[in-house]
Amino acid sequence: MSLSNLLTHHRGNTLFLPAHGRGNALPMEIKALLKRKPGLWDLPELPDIGGPTFLDGAVAKSQEESALTVGAKKGWYGVNGATGLLQASILAIARPKESVLMPRNIHRSVIQACILGDINPVLFDLPFLIDRGHYLPPDFDWFKTVLERLEVEKVEISAVVLSNPTYQGYSSDLKPLIDLIHKKGWPVLVDEAHGAHFATCIGDALPKSALHAGADLVVHSLHKSSLGLVQTAVLWWQGNLIDPEILERSIVLLQTTSPSALLMASCEAAVNELHSPLGKKKLKELLNDSKQLSSSLIAAGLPILENQDPLRLVLHTSSFGICGLDADKWFIDKGIIAELPEPGTITFCLGFSRHRGLVRTLKRRWSQLLSSDISINFNPPFKKPPFPFVSTPEKSCFSAFRSKSKIIPLQESVGKISSDLISPYPPGIPIILPGEKLDKRRVDWMMEQQNFWSDQIPTEIKVVA
Ligand SMILES: Cc1ncc(COP(=O)(O)O)c(C=O)c1O
């Protein structure tokens, strides 16, 4: 079957990304555009349209208006997801050989930018929930201890990256962390790929956006947490710690020379619609519906975990002895496709479309799952990953990635330096970076992870020769 035919297949309940739910929640403007003569809208950077880094043209004007809407000084639309804009931001906030502090659950795109720019990631560990195998974002005390440790160990950094919320919708109050970072004079970039909707400021129903907590740079993935088509994203800039010209040069470095006008129109429409009075009203209703959905499922005995984003519904399968990956396969057979299956949980992304009858469907399917022949001997607790509290790769990511390497069995890799970036996807969180030394605890832990994610954790690893 051709790829084109495959795209139109029915795919059951759309509890996966993009968040527009197979078109249901696309902005009216984009729906209308896509109904026009096919291909009419498929345009590159024509003079009147321009592109994200053009001084003039419709895109420049639209970016200006969007920045005003969200309260940023400037914004750039992206056509290569949050990935492209995070990478451009990293290249702009640090020079080669400089170090950037970031959490252990950082998305792999940030590490890839460190490889590209020969920048050293300084990684800090995070609170870890052993009952489900999830990281939590750091709170103020945790982060303060991280900065104290940097001081004791005399680690110098040039900037900080935070990632909030997590894929599963956990979020912490960023304002005190950002204030602390600014007191030290460092700029802060927040990967808010999963929290574009936080910037709507609709009261207490959602956490505060990093944008309103004072971050210098914030990246939103518009297809993950707004109404954009796949690959759409936006980078917001404010404050006076980062030179916007360097940002633009970094964007130009990584961006295609033919950004799709359709995707840029989708960026504009996503920001406009989500922040319009009607968009906010719809979002409030959706958040209420999602909270009710969660409460009804909990009342019916389903193990739904608490988080800070009602649009992410996390089913704690391992609390019933069921591996999330097995449960996910079973659900897919029944037409329920989740976004993020993990060993301990399944995360459903409710997105921005309505899900009629979902409570009934999930209750019925959960009870069928429990009485099915699925294995129920999956017994966490999950072991906390054995990462040091603060660590820097032994060798620079750049040189380890480019060094002569050889492939060896994972169990024979103790003492070697990894040349590989290994990160199960989703969620895309690296478990080993190029340049990190494989000690016995890490190798034992990675081998144990093979029991949980056999197709995601390789049995061999590329190490520096
Ligand atoms: C936390 C986080 N940041 C960034 C990204 C990259 O987003 P995109 O797919 O828009 O490139 C992801 C993707 O999974 C993510 O989970």
Q: State the helix count.
A: 15
Tell me the CATH topology of the domain at 28-277. Aspartate Aminotransferase, domain 2
| Bulk shape | globular
Low-pLDDT sequence parts? none
Number of strands: 17
Bound small molecules, by name, code or SMILES, are: pyridoxal-5'-phosphate
Indicate the proportion of strand residues: 5-15%
Please name the fourth-level CATH homologous superfamily of the domain at 28-277. Answer: Type I PLP-dependent aspartate aminotransferase-like (Major domain)
Q: N-to-C terminal Cα separation, in Å?
A: 43 Å
Round the Cα radius of gyration to an integer and report it. Answer: 22 Å
pLDDT averaged over residues = 96
Strand order of the largest sheet: 2-10-9-8-7-3-4-15
Going by CATH, the architecture of the domain at 28-277 would be: 3-Layer(aba) Sandwich
Going by helix content, strand content and strand pairing, the class is alpha/beta
Range of helix content:
25-40%
How would you characterize the overall build of this protein?
With 465 residues, this protein is α/β, with parallel strands linked by helices. Among the domains are: 28-277, Aspartate Aminotransferase, domain 2 (3-Layer(aba) Sandwich), CATH 3.40.640.10; 393-464, Orn/Lys/Arg decarboxylase, C-terminal domain (Ornithine Decarboxylase, Chain A, domain 4), CATH 3.90.100. Helix content is 36%, strand content 14%. It contains 15 helices and 17 strands. The strands form five sheets. An eight-stranded mixed sheet has the order 2-10-9-8-7-3-4-15, with helices on both faces. Strand 3 (99-103), helix 5 and strand 4 form a beta-alpha-beta unit. Helix 3 (58-70) packs parallel to helix 10 (261-275) and helix 4 crosses helix 5. The radius of gyration is 22 Å and the shape is globular. It starts with a helix and ends with a strand. Pyridoxal-5'-phosphate (PLP) is lined by residues 81-83, 86, 107, 109, 163, 167, 191, 193-194, 221, 224, 233, 426-428. Pyridoxal-5'-phosphate is lined by residues 81-83, 86, 107, 109, 163, 167, 191, 193-194, 221, 224, 233, 426-428.
